[in-house]
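Many introductory courses stop at the sequence. We go one step further.
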Amino acid sequence: MSLPAKPEVPPPHAAMPIPAVARRWYTRWLLRGLAALSLLMGVAGVFIPGLPTTVFILIAGWAAMRSSPRMHAWLWNHRLFGPMLQNWHAGGCVSRRAKRSAAAMMGVCAVVLWFTPTPMWLRIMASGCMAAVLLWLWLRPEPA
């Protein structure tokens, strides 16, 4: 006699990694400050074209995991920031929506940069950096 199979229900969130909190108090405070600053920059990146959101949220998650389990749990379960951290934790994945958004914002920044009176070396260097980041970003796997 076999038991009926239970339908598989995916968990609402991926399993949160166990925080590895730094042992020294000053290291925890420095990392907590980095997490808070990165989170503020990530939030600003939602509204300011050209300022990356995903990178700052990943830095905030990394620093929070080593300094504040409570902040890390909040970020991990957040409606907007949680999927970024969970996708990255699941193999360095970046969603197609995040890739498109980054490409659009970098494109806007490049156009503005080329139509403003800035030195040519700055235009070339900034455009080259954005192109390198976009290439790296588009080569990242996408979540299933």
